[in-house]
Design goal:
Layout: H1 2-19, H2 25-38, H3 43-56, H4 63-75, H5 79-87, H6 92-96, H7 103-113, H8 118-126, H9 138-153, E1 158-159, H10 160-176, E2 180-186, H11 187-190, E3 195-196, E4 198-205, H12 208-216, E5 221-227, E6 231-236, E7 241-246, H13 252-260, H14 263-275, E8 279-281, E9 284-287, E10 290-293, H15 297-303, H16 319-324, E11 339-340, H17 354-363, E12 368-371, H18 386-402, E13 407-415, H19 426-429, E14 434-438, H20 447-459, E15 465-466, H21 484-494, E16 497-501, H22 511-519, E17 524-527, H23 539-548, H24 562-568
Parallel strand pairs: 4-7, 11-12, 12-13, 13-14, 14-15, 15-16, 16-17
Antiparallel strand pairs: 1-3, 2-4, 5-6, 6-7, 8-9, 9-10
Bound molecules: 2'-deoxyguanosine-5'-triphosphate, calcium ion (2 copies) and zinc ion.
2'-deoxyguanosine-5'-triphosphate (DGT) binds at residues 187-188, 193, 196-198, 200, 258-259, 261-263, 266-267.
Amino acid sequence: MLNQELAKIFFEMSLLLEMKEVAFKPRAYENAAHTLEALEEDVKDIYKREGLKGLDAIPAVGKGIARDIEDFIRTGRIKEYERLKKKIPVDVAGLSSIEGVGPKLIKTLYNTLKIRKVSDLERAAHKGKLRDLPRMGEKLEAKILKGIEFLKTSHGRMLLGEARPIALMILGRLKKVKSVEDAKLAGSVRRWQETIGDLDFLVIAENPKEVIRTFTSMPEVAHIYSTGKTKTMVRLRAGIDADLRILPKESFGAAIQYFTGSKDHNVALRKSAIKKGFKLNEYGLYRGKKLVAGIDEKDIYKKLGLDWMSPEMRTNTGEIEAAQKHKLPNLIEYGALKGDLQTQTNWTDGANSIEEMAMEAKKMGHEYILITDHTKSLAMTGGADEKKLLRQMKEIDRLNKKMSGIMILKGAEVNIMKDGSLDISDSVLSQLDIVGASIHSHFTMPEKEQTARLIRAIENPHVDIIFHPTGRSLMKREPIRLDFDGVFRVAKKTRTILEINAHPRRLDLNGELVRKAKEYGVKFAISTDAHAVSELHYLDYGIAQARRGWATKNDIINAWPLTTLKTFLKKER
Ligand code: DGT
Ligand code: CA
Ligand code: CA
Ligand code: ZN
């Protein structure tokens, strides 16, 4: 799919343009990148059907960028991009993936130390050359080195949000091959793991040769590592590997079970099979030499005396025991949410208007959408002060009168200060329908202080939801240090809801923490943190984390009717 490739280029262009201190354009390219990243239809198909006009009609894509996309579809190149790259021959994408490094610093680094790529930066930091640059210092130098280390540990993996659309697109193509009877995704993508090492495809086909030929000659393939009669491994241009296996029908279920993993789950399952006198491998479940189950995955679990469990749960953390006792939870379903509880608009750093966001939410079948723009202490987002929030509330009243079929709720993503106080006055907070609060700075405070800071915000009678509670940014920034027992206990006591942020970069809380918080009786909101209409479609990624955390409908406030949700909120205001 071209969307992801284009999104990457546009992000890079926005950084390059920012380095050149061009006005407005960087934001436009960034917004377009966000939109393309989450756009479900391939831009190529849109272009084929509707031409340049169709591209122009994509939200956050204007005439100029539509023309860039056209350029790319027709020639595989974007002139403006190549011109920029020539002027600034720097790996801005790589450098800016380091926490604490942005376009301004990249520019300084290039101009003063001729730093072009991550390895240059690492060398300079080790030599202590960064601390004397303007606005730097030893502390920032150390932070950058830490950021580089962190990046290295996640090397070779890709965000689920990036890998999954690629996997689904290839799966769709495999299903269309003539001799293919069935094709399935396995591995970490099927388990909705937050980052992905490689893609695993399993296929039943009469003519394996034809399938392998189709697979290895896809335009997305950059390199073929190996290819056999029933198996092939390739490198995709997107920067991830993909495995394909063709299997006989009678062992397809066993193969799906095996290649779905996780490895830990498989090891435990095999042990349990042996205990019961069976043998289990990727070809089937056997008693002696006799095949007992193999075609159907569910049947394998059943013959082992286990209820089938959803792949998200296969982490070997008690799911096999629960399946044995028929005590698996009734997980929240994909598509079960009635509305989004975190969305940003062009009142701050979002790409779309309140109305556009509401229209898209309505199209998706939502009953409501909570608008939660940033607040004033996040100055770089154009965060709202009290006055602006009041103006926005009036605008929402106006839109609610005008629109039908969707309820726009008034909210905010209030910034939590270093001491745990909020940057918006109580009298204004009390006029909002639902208040979210979150941490955006001072990520490295020691556990005790950080916990006290967050708890102070949780105890604020106006705060309904804590957004992205750990502040992590996958493959970029570690979570803040918290005493989770303390946090969850106070959240339960004060009826403060914790977010399961569905943005693929965050997934925060993650499944493991959801499960722990649930034990304390905490309730959750699954929301997208959308900064563009297309990002409203990220909800499933959050639902997957909720499912990994054994959450049911009862645990998720935006799976309830709005009236039930409203009666649950804090009433002190
Ligand atoms: P990834 O690719 O690192 O994101 O994670 P997976 O889970 O997709 O791992 P991958 O692609 O290496 O293997 C796919 C599945 O195959 C894995 O989830 C479980 C199964 N598998 C792989 N190696 C082993 C093994 O040594 N033992 C067992 N029991 N299962 C394995
Ligand atoms: Ca894999
Ligand atoms: Ca694999
Ligand atoms: Zn934002």
